[in-house]
Each structure stands twice: as structure tokens, then as C-alpha cells.
Amino acid sequence: MLKVRQIEAFRAVMREGSMVRAGAAMAITQPAVSYLIGSLETTVGFPLFSRQGGKLSPTPEAIQLMAEVDRVYEGLDEIESAARQIANHQRAAIRILITPSFSIGRIVNGIGRFAAGHPGLKLEIDVISRSAILHRIRSGQGDVGILSLPPDGDAETGTKLFDSEFVCVAASPGILDGRTHVGPQDLEGTPMVSLRKNGVVRPAVDKWFAKAGLVANHIIEVGDPRTAIELVRGGLGATIVSTFNVPDVRDLGLVAVPLAPSPEQIEVGVITSATQHPNRAVQALVEFLRLDNPL
Fold first, then answer.
1. What are the chain's domains?
2. What residues does the HTH lysR-type domain cover (predicted)?
């Protein structure tokens, strides 16, 4: 049976043109190379080299064999190249699922910077509902979900990125001018542009009003905080959103002030499947986002 060391010696002699130089290339002695070539000739059943005038010359059979050896080594080079690309996440694909609330801002910015640092990495990003994210992660149709924590069951592993608080946003001049904070009583009767009940912000806002014995005056429900902010920018009442979703409101003619007392914070994080081990690229992305958003 052929041995790898025999093939290495044969290839070295063919490339170097002598057993002495082949030995130097392999970091072994010339007699060791000669022994390996002799044992290879015994194994294959034909001579590989002849000496003519003190010069080592390959036989026609050796030239044929070398062509096959080169093909094998080219395949090994391709495998080595593929391994390097896999190690550098250049052959990986990550399916990222994000709720609308977190589809703008620093998390998506961080994903962009991660991708820029890993050329060849393929990303697929879908902005979908929380329930759809959980379904896709559980069914193996997504690799990373970005939403509020905790997830709803044991089928996902969550990694917290940061806490997000709440602010009230209104047009300026308006009801928030001069305020450092706003309470439920300050917003009693104010037309509210509200996020839908199936999210995480709206239940917290309703609970905040209820603790003060009040009910918010919800006049419009929207699914995206950016839509709520734009409606308020047009002069329609006020909205309460996560600080994560608030742009530099001064440039938009808006005022944003924190709520007092403050509702419970939203934990923003990343989830992956608890039953399917994530690939190295997914692990690297989650770690990058965690370090990019220190608690």
C-alpha cells in the first residue's frame, strides 16, 4: 500500500531534480529519501528514476505518475484554501431575522460593520414579526433572531445585548416643551399614536397608564415606531417608543423626554436555536454584537 511519506519523497525528487535537494526540502537525509523512493518503486512495481552520466532522470512512468500526484496536491491546495475561507467566515451564510422595532439603529449598523470585515460572508436579512422569528428559528429557517428578550420557550438561546428605556416624543412647540420627564397624568387625554398590542412597547405603556388609574387615549395604532414618530412629527399628538428607535429628534423638530416613573426596561438581544449548534460565523456575529453593545 502506498504511504504518504513515499509520495512526498517522490514529489520532492521530481520537483528538486536530486535526492540531496529533496532531502533538504523535506528536512531528512539523502539516504532516507533514497530508501523512500526504493520502497515506492517496490510498491508500484516499476522503476521511477535512472542515472545517466551522474544525473537523476525520471522514467516515462514516473512522469505519468507525477501528473496524478500533482492533481492530488492541487485538490489538497483547494481543500486548504476552502478551510481558510471557512475559518474566516468567507464561505458562510447567515440568515438574520429582525423585528421592525430593531430594523434600524445600532444593531443593524453593527451587522454591517461585521459583514464589511468578512468579505465573502453572505447575509440574508428579513424584517418580520416576533412570532414569525420564533417560528423560523425553531424550524431551522433562520440562524439569528434579533428581538426583545426573553424568548417564549426553551427552544431558543438568548444573548442579551442591552436594555432600552422608554421616551415620549411630541412635536415642538408642544406639550413636552420645557419638561425633563413626563408622567401618565401629563398625558391624560393627549391623542396617542401607539404601537400595536402584539409588540413589547404597547403592553408596557398600557400598564404604565393603568398604574396611575388612567387609560391612554389611543387614536392610531401602527406597527412600526418610525411610522409613529413621523405621524407625531406631522403634529398628531404624542407617541411612546423605545429609546432604541428615537433618532436625533432635534433635527426633526421633535422633543423626546423620559417617562417618570419609568416602566420596565426592554431587554434587547439575539436568539439562536437551542437544538441546532450554530456555525462559526453565527457565533462570531453574536459575539461581535455582544461586545459592540456592552451592558
1. 4-86 (1.10.10.10), 91-163+267-291 (3.40.190.10), 166-264 (3.40.190.10)
2. 2-59
